[in-house]
Write a structure and sequence with these properties.
The complex is a heterodimer of chains A (211) and B (628). A 4-stranded parallel beta sheet of chain A has the order 2-1-3-4, sandwiched between helices. Chain A is an alpha/beta fold and 211 residues long. Chain A is 36% helix and 19% strand. Chain B is an alpha/beta fold and 628 residues long. Chain B has 17 helices and 29 strands. Chain B has a 5-stranded parallel beta sheet. In chain B, strands 27-26-28-29 form a 4-stranded parallel beta sheet, sandwiched between helices. Classes of the chains: A alpha/beta (211), B alpha/beta (628). Strand 6 (161-164) of chain A pairs parallel with strand 9 of chain B, so a sheet runs across the interface.
């Protein structure tokens, strides 16, 4: 019916496999471990149904942390991974890449944010922070159990850039792109390019001409 | 400038504005408004005969209105491209320019604005900054005292290409000033106007002082400053040079400028911190070193591009340290001062950096996007059963759903941005979002509210703004109640009413429904859909006589960490104000009401199966609590 060149073969069906979840609690040096004892979260998570491996690690994002996760995926036959560490805005791509290297679909990894949204915000209430870290980890485990594998969707790319603003930054960006053989549309709302710099006399610290 | 115009792969479109940006990374469709110049670019040879013939004179913006220009004009002699414009607001239609242009026939009064569509793979936003207008600071008399000028006016007055050909004169009498005062931080580092530092103005004041000293070594120059900031290479040395050249630096923020009305001499009253007393000095001329502020149309551009703004109005980057050039939208990058005040070297560097970020995409044949898109269960869709519906099609901000009565709705994956608005709106639960299915989100809600739910504040947050705001609260170590339990979906539009009912059915103490501010929404109108639903829920809960503060709706940007912490703490205070027995009774009273609204939830594919398994997790969690 549609002219959609991109197909989506994914279904929202409930996963049929028995979850074998690995949980990794990051210390982040003292960023997390300075506020809550990670081993308590490890013990808690280890007892949750579906979890077959629960362990803490000094830095989950470091080589050693990622190696641990990758080795465990093979060793314990993990089909889901939960990383309780920092913000998804920080390291979701890292851990998706990590599990993918071990052959697991990257969308079978779920993160719990126990740093930005827990220990960093609740330094005044360590007991409360610990309870919260456990709950956030449990929620990630619960979601992970029902994750389904997904593949990234490939979209075509139009080889043309738009640069909005013909000041010094825009001109430079446009030139850099064009010199890499990329066609550029450089849009400027005023009748001339040059921006503020064209209005200046000399510029610091070398006192050279601005145009 | 000239390099850009000469580069064959760069199409320079001046006097052009971006009207609309649609599409997504690799596949943007951009509508440009090429404003009518009334001069044909293919014929104008830049000779300037039209300007000479034009009898109209109006102030030239490029010269800060210190010099006139004609209605047939170029803003400056080195304009690129060298094509004249007719300013139709000023033109008196005498057609002398047409006569002067003669056989070239470049002037064409029939020209109109033209809308042009272009297909674009990646966008670099380099819209720059504006200048703070010091008129509201009446204590400095700008606009009242002729010899008080702004930094940009000074720039044109000492420029050999400027209106005075580089001869600095006092506007009041045309005499050359001998004593010049420069005041820094005008409108910056000032809580009344802009709290932030404008980054380059200390250096800029020093540059002007040295330049004026070079032009006339007898000039006495004083710079009033709060701090002198010289962090980049060669800057401190430049500051040393100024001190050695005899520029006087006075640490103190001037309280007032007064003027002798006869001579137009100026007097700056200020504290001199080094001397520890209040001083007053006389000047022939004073330069106000004005703050860099966002462009006047920055809010408008923010909604055209669907990118958020930081406090202060600058465009907000994806991550302040790790991804300073990236906007939160894939394929849109920032360069230069539009993201925050920057000096020339930093703007140039960021221009190159943004080009490099964009070229990763532009050099690829294809780009990968997240598969967290919407999918329809065709057998649940009422349209397939012949019912008129189409709610999902109307809910989609991207036109990514095809609805034809009699057929199941169909998601056009390439157009779907994965906001989940259709999922939130579908009254029949016939559509879901991959990676954020009802089963997955409900599983999180149940576990987060497993233990002592009445004490918990369940916070629904959108990926782009309020989740980011919660992150920033933590990064800034703004402390808030540890009873908060956060939950992430992509957009507030995905926050299905059922999810909120379920939270109260489980006995949640309070629920926060949060997302971005309307103009910041990552999904065009997603927030608007979310806000409408939230308003409906607010009214319903009020009718149910739910205690105040138990349901709260807040729009929090990724830059508002302080707000996130404050909102949670206020919610905690509201919760604390309700006596425990009253709260428990209220939860019990409302539970059947919520259950009534959730009778069909178990039919949603996957939900019933998931809840059986989640109950095992919850049992374990409660069991742990009992043992402890």
């Amino acid at each position: 019916m549609s002219e959609d060149p991109i197909t989506n073969s994914h279904s929202a069906d409930f996963p049929q496999d028995e979850p074998r979840i690995g949980v990794y609690i990051c210390h982040c040096g003292s960023n997390i471990a300075g506020v809550i004892p990670p081993e308590e979260v490890v013990d808690f998570a280890g007892k949750l149904p579906g979890v077959v491996r629960s362990i803490d690690t000094m830095y989950a994002c470091a080589d050693s942390g990622q190696r641990l996760i990758k080795e465990d995926i093979t060793k314990y036959g993990l089909n889901r991974v939960v990383v309780s560490a920092c913000s998804v805005r920080m390291h979701e791509p890292t851990f998706r890449g990590c599990v993918a290297e071990a052959g697991l679909n990257p969308f079978l990894m779920e993160m719990a944010n126990i740093r930005e949204q827990c220990t960093w915000a609740h330094g005044h209430d360590r007991e409360g922070a610990l309870e919260k870290a456990k709950d956030l980890t449990a929620a990630a485990v619960a979601k992970a159990a029902f994750l389904t594998p997904l593949d990234m969707i490939k979209v075509p790319v139009t080889k043309r850039a738009l640069v909005i603003g013909g000041g010094v930054a825009g001109i430079n960006a446009a030139l850099d792109l064009a010199e890499q053989n990329i066609p550029v549309t450089l849009v400027e709302k005023e009748p001339t390019i040059g921006g503020v710099m064209a209005q200046l006399n000399k510029t610091f610290p070398t006192m050279d001409c601005s145009i | 400038m000239v390099d850009a115009a000469r580069q064959p792969l760069i199409e320079v479109k001046t006097f052009t504005e971006v009207e609309k940006v649609e599409g997504y990374v690799g596949n943007f469709v951009v509508t440009l408004r090429e404003k009518a110049k009334y001069v044909r670019a293919d014929r104008c040879n830049g000779c300037g005969a039209c300007t000479k013939a034009c009898p109209v004179e109006i102030p030239n913006y490029f010269e800060l209105n210190l010099a006139p220009r004609k209605a047939a004009y170029i803003p400056m002699s080195q304009a690129v491209p060298l094509i004249y414009n007719i300013d139709m607001d000023a033109c008196i239609h005498c057609y002398k320019c047409v006569e002067a242009c003669g056989a070239l026939e470049a002037i064409d009064f029939s020209m109109e604005d033209k809308l042009v569509e272009q297909e674009i793979g990646a966008i670099v936003v380099a819209t720059g900054f504006g200048h703070f207008d010091p008129t509201p600071m009446t204590e400095y008399g700008y606009g009242r005292f002729p010899n008080v000028i702004t930094a940009m006016e000074m720039e044109r007055l000492n420029n050999s290409a400027g209106p005075t050909h580089g001869a600095l004169i006092r506007p009041s009498d045309g005499k050359s000033p001998k004593r010049i005062g420069i005041i820094n931080c005008v409108g910056s580092r000032d809580k009344r106007y802009n709290q932030s530092c404008s980054n380059f103005c200390c250096m800029y004041a020093i540059k002007n002082a040295l330049l004026l000293k070079q032009m006339n070594p007898d000039t006495e120059i004083s710079i009033y400053y709060i701090d002198i900031r010289t962090p980049s290479k060669g800057y401190e040395e430049f500051y040393d040079r100024a001190r050695e050249a005899g520029i006087r630096f006075i640490q103190g923020r001037p309280s007032e400028i007064t003027e002798d009305p006869d001579t137009h001499q100026l007097f700056i009253a200020s504290e001199d911190i080094t001397l520890g007393k209040v001083v007053e000095h006389e000047y022939d001329m004073v330069m106000l070193n004005q703050a860099a502020v966002p462009q006047p149309d920055q809010n408008h551009m923010s909604s055209v591009l669907n990118v958020a703004q930081s406090p202060g109005g600058w465009f907000m980057e994806y991550h302040p340290k790790l991804r300073p050039m990236d906007s939160p939208t894939d394929g849109i990058f920032f360069a230069g001062a539009c993201q925050g005040p920057k000096d020339i070297p930093a703007s140039v560097a960021q221009g190159s950096a943004a080009a490099s970020r964009a070229s990763r995409i532009l050099h690829s044949d294809s780009w990968q996007i997240e598969p967290t898109v919407a999918v329809v269960w065709p057998d649940r869709c009422v349209s397939a059963k012949g019912q008129a519906c189409g709610i999902c099609e109307r809910a989609c901000p991207y036109g990514a759903i095809d609805y034809t009565k009699g057929l199941a709705a169909e998601v056009i994956t390439a157009k779907c941005h994965g906001c989940g608005a259709c999922v939130g709106e579908c009254p029949h639960d016939s559509i879901t979002q991959l990676h954020f299915t009802d089963a997955q989100v409900l599983a999180q809600i149940r576990t987060l509210l497993a233990v002592e739910p009445e004490k918990k504040i369940l916070a629904f947050r959108c990926q782009w703004c309020s989740y980011g705001g919660a992150d920033l609260a933590g990064t800034s170590h703004f402390e808030y109640s540890a009873n908060e339990r956060g939950l992430r979906v992509m957009c507030s539009a995905r926050m299905d009413a059922d999810l909120i009912y379920e939270a109260y059915r489980l006995g949640a103490g309070a629920v926060l429904y949060s997302g971005c501010h309307p103009q910041d929404c990552h999904y065009i109108t997603g927030q608007i859909a979310g806000a409408k639903r939230a308003a409906r829920l607010e009214k319903m809960f009020e009718r149910m006589q739910m205690s105040p503060g138990r349901f709260r709706v807040e729009w929090i940007s990724a830059a508002e960490g302080d707000k996130y912490a404050r909102v949670i703490n206020e919610m905690q205070a509201s919760l604390d104000a309700i006596p425990e027995d009253v709260l428990k009774a209220e939860i019990e009273r409302l539970r059947p009401e919520m259950e009534k609204k959730l009778t069909k939830l178990g039919d949603v594919p996957g939900v019933a199966q998931a809840m059986v398994q989640v109950d095992f997790i919850v049992d374990e969690m409660i069991g742990r609590k009992v043992v402890a």
